[in-house]
């Protein structure tokens, strides 16, 4: 492995995700293992612009693998979108002698870092950390498994009360433009219907799933709605059903940010640990403008331009097929 790089900066940016701390820990400990200095950059690009850097050692990342959120804090920086902002950031890194970067975040984070690489040629590796699982080039992003498990737990609880009162519940889950959390929490939670942006389900098709006009109709129903739904959010869909039929006693629950917190699952901790080490080793091998991913359980390095050209992480058709059969 090439060993020229001596100081590596690590930061988290965009929406936090459970497992980010495990990734920070892995990056810092891999640096220690390979005798590199690790610097934490606080609040993502904001801290880079302000020069808010903190030296990290193996012990400073103890007792964080199980914690949600991010010890480095996170932000969405408007200033880094400007050339002046990026110049300030570069000058701060240079002043501290930081020669390479590891970013943990989502597509907004990576787009910023790619631009930065093109301008200043600071070797950079991105680690996909977002609950949305919306990045191509990896089967899983850090935080997605935890968030989906959290959603399933919530759906199970809602089901108890839905059944007790014969109610129709619309449960809205996060995911931005991606239906990953919805499709898999919906399948695992036994939802009657799952509304995701990737599938062209019409409102009529959804309404028919409820079986309001049939004698066989279910007494209680639970519909999982992805926040990126193209036929309306949970409140809108609930209102439209109520307008069409008085058969249902309807309630809406929006899970929101509770899906972002909490202890990461074992899966996210291990994924984050693998990716954190891979990021440092990638830099040592000369990777420069890439995103680490996991494909068929193997670490891969994706060229940034290839990733961005793909735009979206498709939902596999098998999941859609399964959801359809089970909603009968
Ligand atoms: O990208 C992660 C995510 O939680 C999305 O699922 C959601 O749409 C968004 O961030 C919410 O962002 P914020 O925390 O800024 O409201």
TrEMBL record:
Regulation (activators, inhibitors): Allosterically activated by ADP and other diphosphonucleosides, and allosterically inhibited by phosphoenolpyruvate.
Cofactor: Mg(2+)
Binding-site residues for ADP, renumbered to this chain: 25-29, 159, 218-220
InterPro entries: ATP_PFK, ATP_PFK_prok-type, PFKA_ATP_prok, Phosphofructokinase_CS, Phosphofructokinase_dom, PKF_sf
Binding positions (substrate): 130-132, 167, 174-176, 227, 251, 257-260
Record has Secreted as a keyword: no
EC number of this enzyme: 2.7.1.11
Subcellular location: Cytoplasm
PROSITE patterns: PHOSPHOFRUCTOKINASE (PS00433)
Role this protein plays: Catalyzes the phosphorylation of D-fructose 6-phosphate to fructose 1,6-bisphosphate by ATP, the first committing step of glycolysis.
Similarity annotation: Belongs to the phosphofructokinase type A (PFKA) family. ATP-dependent PFK group I subfamily. Prokaryotic clade 'B1' sub-subfamily.
Subunit structure comment from the entry: Homotetramer.
Name used for this protein in its record: ATP-dependent 6-phosphofructokinase
Species annotation: Chryseosolibacter histidini
Gene expressing this chain: pfkA
């Amino acid at each position: 492995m090439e060993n020229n790089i001596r100081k590596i900066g690590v930061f988290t940016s965009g929406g936090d995700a459970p497992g980010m701390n495990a990734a920070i820990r892995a990056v810092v400990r891999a640096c220690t293992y390979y005798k590199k200095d690790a610097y934490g950059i606080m609040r993502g690009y904001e801290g880079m612009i302000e020069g808010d850097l903190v030296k990290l050692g193996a012990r400073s990342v103890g007792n964080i693998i199980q914690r949600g959120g991010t010890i480095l804090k996170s932000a969405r920086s408007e200033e880094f979108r400007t050339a002046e902002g990026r110049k300030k950031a570069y000058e701060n890194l240079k002043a501290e002698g930081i020669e390479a970067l590891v970013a943990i975040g989502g597509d907004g984070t990576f787009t910023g870092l790619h631009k930065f690489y093109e301008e200043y040629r600071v070797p950079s590796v991105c680690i996909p950390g977002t609950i949305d699982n919306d990045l191509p080039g990896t089967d899983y992003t850090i935080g997605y498994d935890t968030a989906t498990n959290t959603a399933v737990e919530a759906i199970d609880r809602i089901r108890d009360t839905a059944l007790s009162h014969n109610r129709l519940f619309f449960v809205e889950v996060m995911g931005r433009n991606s239906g990953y959390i919805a499709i898999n929490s919906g399948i695992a939670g036994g939802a009657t219907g799952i509304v995701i942006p990737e599938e062209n389900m019409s409102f009529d098709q959804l309404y028919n799933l409820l079986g309001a006009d049939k004698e066989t109709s279910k007494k209680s129903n639970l519909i999982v709605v992805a926040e990126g739904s193209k036929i309306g959010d949970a409140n809108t869909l609930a209102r439209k059903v109520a307008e069409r039929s008085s058969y249902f006693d309807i309630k809406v629950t929006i899970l929101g940010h509770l899906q972002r917190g909490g202890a990461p699952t074992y899966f996210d901790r291990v994924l984050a640990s693998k990716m954190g080490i891979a990021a440092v080793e990638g830099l040592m091998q000369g990777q420069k403008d890439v995103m680490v991913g996991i494909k068929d359980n193997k670490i891969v390095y994706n060229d940034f331009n290839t990733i961005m050209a793909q735009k979206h992480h498709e939902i596999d058709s098998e999941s859609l097929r399964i959801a359809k059969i089970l909603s009968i």
